[in-house]
Design brief:
- The protein contains 9 helices and 8 strands.
- It has 224 residues and is an alpha/beta fold.
- It is globular.
- The N and C termini lie close together (5 Å).
- It has helices at 17-28, 35-48, 56-62, 93-102, 106-122, 132-136, 150-163, 170-186, 208-223; strands at 6-10, 31-34, 68-73, 76-81, 84-85, 125-129, 142-147, 199-202.
- β3 (68-73) and β4 (76-81) form a beta hairpin.
- α2 (35-48) crosses α4 (93-102) and α2 packs antiparallel against α5 (106-122).
- It has 2 domains: 1-30 and 124-217, P-loop containing nucleotide triphosphate hydrolases (Rossmann fold, 3-Layer(aba) Sandwich); 35-123, P-loop containing nucleotide triphosphate hydrolases (Rossmann fold).
- Helices cover 50% and strands 17% of the residues.
- The strands form 2 sheets. A 5-stranded parallel β-sheet has the order 2-6-1-7-8, with helices on both faces. The chain has a 3-stranded antiparallel β-sheet with strand order 3-4-5.
- It binds 2'-deoxycytidine-5'-monophosphate.
- The site of 2'-deoxycytidine-5'-monophosphate has 13 residues, from α2, α4 and α8.
Length: 224
Amino acid sequence: MKNRFAIAIDGPAGAGKSTIAKNLSKKLGVIYVDTGAMYRAMALYLIREGVSAEDAAAISEKCASADISIAFEDGVQQVMLNGENVSGLIRTEEVSSMASRSSANADVRARLVVLQRKLASEKSLVMDGRDIGTVVLPGAEVKIYLTASSAVRAKRRYEELLAKGEQCELAQIEADIIERDHRDMTREISPLKQAEDAVLVDTSDMDIEEVTKVLMDLVEEKCG
Ligand code: DC
C-alpha cells in the first residue's frame, strides 16, 4: 500500500457512509474524517448567531468568524467550534436543516474545504461527505459513491429514532430525506453527485458487514 492514501466516500444521507467509513478506517488503521460534522458545526454557529438560513449575505459574513477544527479522542473525531467541543450538539433536526442550507454557501464551503485538504495532506484517511471525490480530493486513490433507496434510508433513520425512544413518522422522515437530497443534488456549488471515476455501491439490500467487505476488496484492488 502507498505511504499516504485517501479514500473518498460520498453519497446521500442515510446510505451508511459514516458507519462504513468508520469500519474501513479501523481495518486500515487510518483516521476517519466526517466532513458533514464540520458543516453541522458551522450551522450550529450560524444558529447561535441568529442568522437566517435564507440570508446568504449574513451567512457569508458570519462564517468568517467560526473557527472550526477537529481533534481525535481515542481515535474518535471531535469537532471543535471556536475552541468548544460541539460534537454532542450537532445531530438535531434544527442543525441538519440549517446545515443543508448553509452548506450551499460558497464562503462556507471554501473555509471547510481548506481544512479538509489540509487533513488529507498530512495523513492517510477515509473521508466522507458529498463532494469529496469530485471537489475536495479529486486525486483520492479510491472513490466510492454509496447510496440506497430513499425508502430504505428512511426506514433506517426511523428505527434509529425509535431505538432512542423518539416519536416519529416514517412518511415524514422519507419526505425530509427526499427534500434534503434534492437540495444537496441541485445546489450550484459542489452538488452531490457521483465522480466519474467513483464506484457506485447501492446498500439497499446489503448489511453493514457485506458493504464493508465490498469496500475493503475495492481498496485492496486499487491500493495494492
Ligand atoms: O452527512 P451529514 O448529514 O452530516 O451532512 C450535513 C449537511 O452538510 C448535509 O446537508 C450535506 C452537507 N455536506 C456537504 O454539503 N458537503 C459535505 N462534504 C458534507 C456534508
